[in-house]
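Troubleshooting log. The previous structure file for this entry was overwritten by mistake, so regenerating from the original sequence record. Sequence copied from the archived sheet and checked twice against the printout by T.R.
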Amino acid sequence: MHIKNRALFVLLFLATKLWAQQSPMLETTRDQINREGFRIQQNNTVFGFKGEPGKRLGTNYLDTAWHSGQVTFYRTIQAPGAPPLDSLDQVAVRLDLLAGEVEFLAGYKDVRAVKADQVKEFSVRYPDAGNRRFVNVREYAGKAVPVRGFFEKLVDGKLSLLAHHSIFVKKANYNPALNVGTKDDELVKRTEWYLATGQEVQKLSPGRRAVLEVMADKRPQIEAYLKTANPDYRSAADLAKLVRYYNNL
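Regenerated output below.
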């Protein structure tokens, strides 16, 4: 074979092989896999399904909306030409769970952020639902030490109910050869419950047994309440009612 023709043949062969490796799976190939099972052919070419790249679903924020609130810092802050401040009031605020930051809306499209470990506590005001108060976990001791960020204080009393909100990334599990799974990462929020007596905190595993252990000094009354109310131990509202009932005994 002439050298020029041989070079042309090699280029055409390589281009055809590369096209085969990058092309979407044909219906005949898919049918063969479904009929005979997944087998790698002698040419070692594994076909994949072509499609859109994956995305990240969900939001970083506990609540994406801005709400007026108050923020208290561990240390004073000072802007140029302004007096030092240890708190801000009537400022639009929201909590970025993924970054671990409290964000402020300083102006139109002007967002500032402060790391959570610099904020002692903050509260946000909801027109229809009242205030939500968040306290840095550093303000508490006990078994809650390993967690970071903030406790939302749902009930304040001799026994306080706290919620710890966090977020994790559920990674994509897409298999391009078989076209199964999802291409998208997903941000998943998680809430865990804690009970505090003073500054001492312990995690609450939602369930009847755990509740009775914590409230053992009022066990007969709590058993009667649980039987009548039949609370959902994963509901913030039901847990708050239970803790308030205990505090009033």
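Helices lie at 3-22, 27-36, 208-214, 219-229, 236-247. Archived copy saved in two places this time.
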